Every structure is written in structure tokens, then in C-alpha cells.
Amino acid sequence: MGTLDGRLALVTGASRGIGEHCARSLAGQGARVAIAARSESDLARVAKDLPNDPVVLAADLALPGAGAELAAAAIEALGGVDILVNNAGVSEIKGQDEMVMRLNYHAPLETTKALVRQMSERGHGSVIHMSSVAGATGVAELPTYGATKAALDSLTRSQAAQYGKHGVRINAVAPGLIITEMWEEGRKTPGLAAGLADHIALGRWGDPREISSVVAFLASDDASYVTGQTIVVDGGFHGVTAWGDYL
Prior knowledge:
Blueprint: E1 8-12, H1 17-28, E2 32-37, H2 40-47, E3 55-58, H3 66-78, E4 83-86, H4 97-122, E5 125-130, H5 143-163, E6 168-175, H6 192-197, H7 208-219, E7 230-233
Parallel strand pairs: 1-2, 1-4, 2-3, 4-5, 5-6, 6-7
Helix pairs in contact: 1-7, 3-4, 4-5
């Protein structure tokens, strides 16, 4: 038996990277998962080997109102939603501040608000926002991206206070440097990947499965007394000084 047997989950940005692995982890623990992203073909690739009769929902969460529409579609397809993973997001895009804010902050806010009422009526629910260590530290090249993630961290605490009495837990996961498609080009820059790894206490970049396993924990009853938290999963990158091999 899995820790999420019988649960119904919606994962956004699930066509690749961390979102895909979140969908796989939740389904592997017994949840029936609805996966959402813009590309139906990529979603179909993910869904084809997911257990528990997955649902594919194409959605562009950068559009106003798309979060509420997606929530309604997920409820109709699944019959309800117990677990929401707000993973869809985008990195810094020059000249596109409003779009970055829309996708990274407004869409999770909208989707959560549209789903929390039926979670409350069901007497339980778990929402996991995908934050970033950039939300807790300044990154010169990522001012808008970092601001959206800091806003998500604050939203996590506020929503936890608002919905806790209804049995709904709200948490966030803040990844550090993870090997995903988002970093595919950057990691080709000579010396960049190794140089950044030197500043990680564990000495290596993370794997998406190391994020999805934490998401699956927060979604489960094993985390029944955890809410309002941003869990940093970064191998000791933020908040830990790793000066390299100087001893």
C-alpha cells in the first residue's frame, strides 16, 4: 500500500522536470493524478506509464483566469482534488516581468483559491507551492523571479493560517540547484556547473526526484502536523557556507 492510496492530485507544470517527477512520485504512492501543462503531447508522454488512470489537462496558466478554469476541469475529471502541487513556473525573462509574476504567483494563488473550498468540504487537503532558494536570497540576474518566489513563501504562511482550521495544509518546497531542462543550456557553460557545485555543501547538483520525494511526503498523512513551512531542499547551498576543499 502507498501513503497516498485513494487520494486525488493535480500537478501543474507536469510535462517535464520537477513537475513530471512530482506526478510520478504521487502516482507511485497510490494517488490518481491529473497532470497539467501547455503541451498535450508532452503530457501524453508522461501519462502513458503513470498508474491509476491519470488525467491529462492542457492549460496555459499565464492567461488570466486559467487557474480557476484548470481547477474546475480537475474537479470534473477526478471528482475532487485532495492534493495540489503548484509547480508551473518560469525563470527570469527580460521585459516580461508581468508574465513572470502572472505565472509564478498569480496562477498558484488563483488555482489554490479555486480548490480550497472543496478541500475544506472534504475535511482535508494538502497544497504544495514550488518556491526556490532565490526567494530567500538576492540573485542579481533574477530580480523578478526571486520576488515571485518570496511572494509564494509569504502566501504559504498566510494561506496556512487561513485554511488550517478547515483541515487544509499549505506548504512550499524551495529547490536549490537541480538538474532540469531549465538549466540545460547553462550547464553547458564551461566551468559553471562544477563551479556552482563547489558552493553546495554536498558537493553536487540535485536530482528532480530529490524534490518530488519531499513533495510526496508533504502530501501525505506523514506530514499531518506540518503547515505554513517552506522546506529548503538544496544540498546545503543557501544558508550554508561551503568554501571548498581547503582542509
